[in-house]
Amino acid sequence: MLAARIRSGLVETEHQGVVSAFDSNGQLIAWSGDLDRPFYLRSSAKPFQAFVTLEAGARLNPLQTALAAASHDGFPAHVSIVKSILEEGGLTEDHLQCPPDWPLGARARDRLNREDHTGPRRLWHNCSGKHAGWLRACQAQGWPLDNYLSPEHPLQRRIVDFVTEIGETPAAPVGVDGCGAPVLRTTARAMGLMFSRLATEERFHMVLDAMHTYPALVSGVDNGDTSIAIATNSAAKRGAAGCIGIGVRGLWGVAVKAWDGNDTVAALAAAAVLLALGAVSDAGLAQLSATSSPAVLGGGAPVGSFEPRLELTWS
């Protein structure tokens, strides 16, 4: 079990899942749950997709790299940087193949509603930075732009091969993600290994540095992965349906999947693993408090909290 939700003194819900932690040598050091049950990486794959984007020749600065690895909330800063990725390649919003959407972040949506916008845009989709980076990679390689989301496209084949390599587990057969891109298979064993390599291998330093330096660009201001990246020396990446991965610089990789898809529980469990590893300083504890024990509300006031129920096995 990862966590329980306590409302007015009663256990209201219990949440099952799996976690893994790997050290800098790629060795499994702690876990809970079924390490080999498959699931989709969803947006937790974005650090590795961003690496392939850079390796393929997309010339992105650190701010743009953060957006290439982002599930952004859709604030003006996010949208402006995505536009810069496109414009530097002579591209426009029309080249994006993610679906038109409203911003992922509630406050960003509220802002647009106050401005009387009448319809969604591709730029506002939380994956627009990833798609813009992919387009720049295709330009650098001379690959076609019109079918860059096809599983048979050279970019997507390169991503599948790379994620298979670093996770030592086949990332295919792929599914279809919410943004229309191929979504990759994984397990907690593979995902934890991948994030340990993100944390420790020199080739990933540009992605790790950008994600840790600009966590609010990778996500938003009130999200669990943002809080974790600020509270620890890490890059953290949430994915839809209760998935999150963390690479603690030079030390550990952590993977969490909540089987009921609860993102709050996944972030809470990730924080619990980091606390158990000693990855959170005294200064970071306050930053992590809302993630490690989020409040349960009744009538707009706290009446309980989500509490960790994680029991790790140590190797």
Describe the structure using short key phrases.
315 residues, alpha+beta, 2 domains, 6-stranded antiparallel beta sheet, 4-stranded antiparallel beta sheet, 12 helices, 14 strands, 40% helix, 20% strand
Write up this protein.
The chain folds into 2 domains: 1-37 and 187-315, no CATH class; 46-153, no CATH class. Helix content is 40%, strand content 20%. It has helices spanning 46-55, 62-68, 76-88, 106-114, 128-141, 154-167, 188-200, 205-213, 215-218, 224-231, 263-277, 282-292; strands spanning 3-7, 10-15, 17-22, 28-32, 39-40, 175-176, 182-183, 185-186, 234-239, 243-248, 252-258, 295-298, 301-308, 313-314. Strands 9-10-11-3-4-14 form a 6-stranded antiparallel beta sheet. Strands 2-1-13-12 form a 4-stranded antiparallel beta sheet. A two-stranded antiparallel ribbon has the order 5-8. It is globular and about 55 Å long. The mean pLDDT is 97.
Could you write a compact summary of the structure shown?
By secondary structure, the chain is an alpha+beta fold.
